[in-house]
C-alpha cells in the first residue's frame, strides 16, 4: 500500500524519534539509509485534521460603568491600539457578554489609565504655553524611550488575547482516538512555544500529535500506535501537494470553498489509517471539480488505481514524443566574517517532463562514482551521490545491482530523484564588504562582488541583499553595473545585476544618514545574502551520460537535457 505514496525507496527519510519509529530488517543490511517498515501494523494514522489559530483579542481595560443590559445579545468592542503624540489608544476585537455583572479594574487597567492621564496632562501643558527646554538630542531620546515603553505595554496587552482553535477539516480514520482530542493540540503547542521548546511531535495522554505548518494552517495527524514518524510527515506533505495542485493555493479560503472535494480526497488518500492513492494525476481522473451528466454506458473508473503501474495510465498518445530533463543544483553556503567557509553543501534534483506514447521504459545513466569504480573507470570524472531519494517509479533493486536508473515514467512533470553532496564548495559569487560607521552622523558601505566560476558561464538575475540599520535614511548609491534599491520595510539594500559573467568583479558604494540618537543593536548584524542562477552549469560536475527510451512500438523520441545551478541558503557574514 505504500507504493502509491513513497514506493519502497524512501532513502531520505530519517526517524525523528527512536521510540516513535520502527527500524526494519533492511536497516541492518543498508545502514546508510532508512526505509519505512513493510508491515502495516506499525504505521496507522488515527486522525488527520487541518486547523487554524484564530486570535480573539480582549480589551486590556474596561470602563467602570456597569453594563445593565438584560438581553442575551453579545456586544462587540472595536478599539484601536495606536500611539499618537504620546497618547495611548488600544485596539482589539473582543466579545463582551451582556448581563448584570460588574467589571472590576485590575492593576494593569489602573496603570494604563494613569499613563493615559499623564500623557493627556502633558499635551494640555504644551497647548497652554508650556515651553520645552530640552535639547533636540534629549527630545529624540525621550521619544525613543516612550516608544519602547509603549511597545512593552502593547506586548503585555497582547498576552490578554484569547487564542481560539478553529478546526477546518477533520477526518477520523480508525475511531480509536476521540474527535475531541484534537482540541488539546493547540494549547500544548502554545505552551511549548512560550517555553521555547517546540517539537514536531507532541503528546497528550496516550495520543501523539505529529504536525506541520503551511501558511497559516496547521496539518495534524494523531496516532495511538507505534507509528512510523517519517511516513506520517511524508503523508502530511503529500496532502499539501495534492491540495495545492487541486486548488492552486492551500489556504483557509480554498478549504472553505471546497469542503466536499477535500473530504473526497481525504477518503481516497487514506483508508483506515493507511496511505492509499496519493498521486494527484490519478486522483484527478475520478475526483473532478466540474459536474457532469451520469452516463451508464460511459467509461469505468481508471484502472490505474489497481494496476501494478499505478502512476501511469494506459493508452496515452502524443503526435510528437519528447522528454525534457532538468538537472537543478542549489548551493547552500555560510561564510564567516573572516572569510572562512563554515558550511557548504549541494542539494540537487533531476526533474522530468515526459510526453511519450504508450508504456515506455526509460534508462538513465549518470557519471556515478560507484558505477565507474565497478566498471573499472575509477579515474574518469565522477560524482559520489549521497542521501539519494527516488520517485516510486524507479526500480530500486536494479539500481542497487548495477546502478542503472530504470523506470516507467508518469505522464507529464515529476521529480525523478534528489540527492545531496556534503562537500567543500568554492563560493561561486564572493562578496567583500567594508562598512564604516561614523558616530551619530552616517554609515558608508563598499561592496565588492566577484564571480568565481568559469568565464564561459554567466550568472543571471543576481541579487545581493545587504542589511542596513532600521533607522537609516537619506540613501545615496553608486555602482559600476546594475541597479540599487533601498527597501526600508525590510531594512536592506538590493543590488541587482541582470548578467554577471564569470571572472568579473563589480563595485557598489552606499551612503546612509543616521539619527543623532541611535537605537540599540541587540540582534547583531544580519548576513549578506545572494540570489543567482547559472544555466548550463553544475557545481558538482554531475552529467547525464545517456537516456534510453524503449517502447514496444519502436518510435523515435527526442530527449533534451538542461543544467542549472542556483542559490540555496547562500549567506556571507559581515564585520
From TrEMBL:
Keywords: Cytoplasmic vesicle, Golgi apparatus, Membrane, Phosphoprotein, Protein transport, Transport. InterPro entries: Adaptor_comp_med_subunit, AP2_Mu_C_sf, Clathrin_mu, Clathrin_mu_CS, FAM32A, Longin-like_dom_sf, MHD. It is found in: Cytoplasmic vesicle, Clathrin-coated vesicle membrane; Golgi apparatus. Residues 320-573 form the MHD domain. It is a peripheral membrane protein. GO terms for biological process: intracellular protein transport; vesicle-mediated transport. One of its GO terms (cellular component) is trans-Golgi network. Residues 99-128 are annotated as: Disordered. It comes from the Eukaryota. Belongs to the adaptor complexes medium subunit family. It holds the Pfam family Adap_comp_sub. PANTHER family: AP COMPLEX SUBUNIT MU (PTHR10529). This is Adaptor related protein complex 1 subunit mu 1. Its main location: membrane. Subunit of clathrin-associated adaptor protein complex 1 that plays a role in protein sorting in the trans-Golgi network (TGN) and endosomes. The AP complexes mediate the recruitment of clathrin to membranes and the recognition of sorting signals within the cytosolic tails of transmembrane cargo molecules.
Amino acid at each position: 500500500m505504500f507504493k502509491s505514496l513513497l514506493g519502497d525507496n524512501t532513502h531520505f527519510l530519517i526517524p525523528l524519534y527512536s521510540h516513535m519509529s520502527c527500524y526494519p530488517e533492511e536497516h541492518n543490511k543498508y545502514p546508510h539509509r532508512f526505509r519505512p517498515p513493510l508491515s502495516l501494523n506499525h504505521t496507522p494514522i488515527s486522525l488527520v485534521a487541518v486547523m487554524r489559530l484564530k486570535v480573539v483579542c480582549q480589551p486590556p481595560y474596561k470602563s467602570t460603568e456597569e453594563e445593565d443590559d438584560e438581553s442575551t445579545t453579545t456586544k462587540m468592542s472595536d478599539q484601536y491600539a495606536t500611539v499618537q503624540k504620546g497618547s495611548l489608544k488600544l485596539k482589539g476585537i473582543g466579545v463582551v457578554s451582556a448581563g448584570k455583572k460588574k467589571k472590576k479594574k485590575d492593576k494593569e487597567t489602573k496603570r494604563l489609565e494613569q499613563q493615559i492621564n499623564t500623557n493627556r496632562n502633558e499635551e494640555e501643558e504644551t497647548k497652554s504655553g508650556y515651553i520645552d527646554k530640552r535639547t533636540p538630542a534629549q527630545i529624540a531620546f525621550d521619544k525613543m524611550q516612550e516608544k519602547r515603553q509603549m511597545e512593552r505595554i502593547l506586548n503585555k496587552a497582547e498576552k490578554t488575547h484569547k487564542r481560539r482553535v478553529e478546526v477546518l477539516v477533520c477526518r477520523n480514520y480508525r475511531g480509536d482516538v476521540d474527535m475531541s482530542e484534537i482540541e488539546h493540540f493547540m494549547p500544548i503547542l502554545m505552551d511549548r512555544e512560550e517555553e521555547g521548546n517546540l517539537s514536531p511531535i507532541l503528546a497528550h495522554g496516550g495520543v501523539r500529535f505529529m504536525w506541520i505548518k503551511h501558511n497559516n494552517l496547521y496539518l495534524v495527524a494523531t496516532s495511538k500506535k507505534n507509528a512510523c514518524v517519517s511516513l506520517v510527515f511524508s503523508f502530511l506533505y503529500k496532502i499539501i501537494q495534492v491540495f495545492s495542485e487541486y486548488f492552486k493555493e492551500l489556504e483557509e479560503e480554498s478549504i472553505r470553498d471546497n469542503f466536499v472535494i477535500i473530504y473526497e480526497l481525504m477518503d481516497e488518500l487514506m483508508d483506515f489509517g493507511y496511505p492509499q492513492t496519493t498521486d494527484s494525476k490519478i486522483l484527478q481522473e475520478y475526483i473532478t471539480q466540474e459536474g457532469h451528466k451520469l452516463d451508464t454506458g460511459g467509461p469505468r473508473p481508471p484502472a490505474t488505481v489497481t494496476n501494478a503501474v499505478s502512476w501511469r495510465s494506459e493508452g496515452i498518445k502524443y503526435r510528437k514524443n519528447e522528454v525534457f530533463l532538468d538537472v537543478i543544483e542549489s548551493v547552500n553556503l555560510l561564510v564567516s566574517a573572516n572569510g572562512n567557509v563554515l558550511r557548504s553543501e549541494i542539494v540537487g534534483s533531476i526533474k522530468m517532463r515526459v510526453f511519450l506514447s504508450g508504456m515506455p521504459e526509460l534508462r538513465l545513466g549518470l557519471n556515478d562514482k560507484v558505477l565507474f569504480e565497478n566498471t573499472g573507470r575509477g579515474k574518469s570524472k565522477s560524482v559520489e551521490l549521497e542521501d539519494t531519494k527516488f520517485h516510486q517509479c524507479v526500480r530500486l533493486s536494479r539500481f542497487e545491482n548495477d546502478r542503472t536508473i530504470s523506470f516507467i515514467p508518469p505522464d507529464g512533470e515529476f521529480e525523478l530523484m534528489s540527492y545531496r553532496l556534503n562537500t567543500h564548495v568554492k563560493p561561486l559569487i564572493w562578496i567583500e564588504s567594508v562598512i564604516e560607521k561614523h558616530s551619530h552622523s552616517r554609515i558608508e558601505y563598499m561592496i565588492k562582488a566577484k564571480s568565481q566560476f568559469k568565464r564561459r558561464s554567466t550568472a543571471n538575475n543576481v541579487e545581493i541583499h545587504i542589511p542596513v540599520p532600521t533607522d537609516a535614511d537619506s540613501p545615496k548609491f553608486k555602482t559600476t553595473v546594475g541597479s540599487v534599491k533601498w527597501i526600508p520595510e525590510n531594512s536592506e539594500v538590493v543590488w541587482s545585476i541582470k548578467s554577471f559573467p564569470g571572472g568579473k568583479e563589480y563595485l557598489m558604494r552606499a551612503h546612509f544618514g543616521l539619527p543623532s540618537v541611535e537605537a540599540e543593536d541587540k540582534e547583531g548584524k544580519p548576513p549578506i545574502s545572494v540570489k543567482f542562477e547559472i544555466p548550463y552549469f553544475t557545481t558538482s560536475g554531475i552529467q547525464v551520460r545517456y537516456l534510453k527510451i524503449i517502447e514496444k512500438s519502436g518510435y523515435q523520441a527526442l530527449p533534451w537535457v538542461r543544467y542549472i545551478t542556483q542559490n540555496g541558503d547562500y549567506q556571507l557574514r559581515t564585520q
